[in-house]
């Protein structure tokens, strides 16, 4: 029997599913994160990081196999085209999030390309996707439409304006608010979250429409406190930072403590200091 998509099951019930972003594309690092048992889903970012499909396939397999289906491998594709969605799903993703969805037509394309006939146009020649669900290829093709998560990312003023038309598209499992790009689209500095009135109004417009249509909604957060706040706000698919964030933040905290440095205003993750080291890093005074 096809394994159920645990993340999809949770968000359909209105329960929170907390996951994380994968930006480093390290199979060993992914395996170690999966083994900690802390996340319900782990997302490979095809849109903004350099990952090839072979590496992504190994990562998706590591997630689904090591967790025995308890952790959902997800892809944020580069665009909502048939080739991007097809390649991600055939590589073993069990859900796709499509960025920059601005219209009902774009949302309908995302659903169509992610579903097998008669509900879509996805081809059935994938070599590996059935393995992550623990079944053979024919059974996967027959049942996968019910277990593949299809999310549309709302991150522009246009997408917010068209949210009711977008949500009228049958087959959308999730609306994902992209906070950084939504800020930019509204003429604001990119941030994970902010009290800016224009941003808050856009979020309210999207989340209220989602509640009216019974569609779960999600976003990405920088830290655990923000995750708790978003869950309190009704978000169910919530991302906690990324493997890159964990690496740079922990490194910054440790060498910051060693050298008496405070976290930069732009965070440890955004600190770049290639020209020269501050005096505090040239050597440590002996006690």
TrEMBL record:
Residue span, HpcH/HpaI aldolase/citrate lyase domain: 39-247
Keyword NAD found: no
A molecular function GO annotation: metal ion binding
An example Gene Ontology CC term for this record: cytoplasm
Gene3D superfamilies: Phosphoenolpyruvate-binding domains
A Pfam match: HpcH_HpaI
SUPFAM superfamilies xrefs: Phosphoenolpyruvate/pyruvate domain
Entry keyword annotation includes Ligase: no
PANTHER family associated with the record: 2-KETO-3-DEOXY-L-RHAMNONATE ALDOLASE (PTHR30502), PHOSPHOENOLPYRUVATE CARBOXYLASE FAMILY PROTEIN (PTHR30502:SF0)
Family recorded in the similarity comment: Belongs to the HpcH/HpaI aldolase family.
Protein name: 2-dehydro-3-deoxyglucarate aldolase
Organism: Streptomyces cadmiisoli
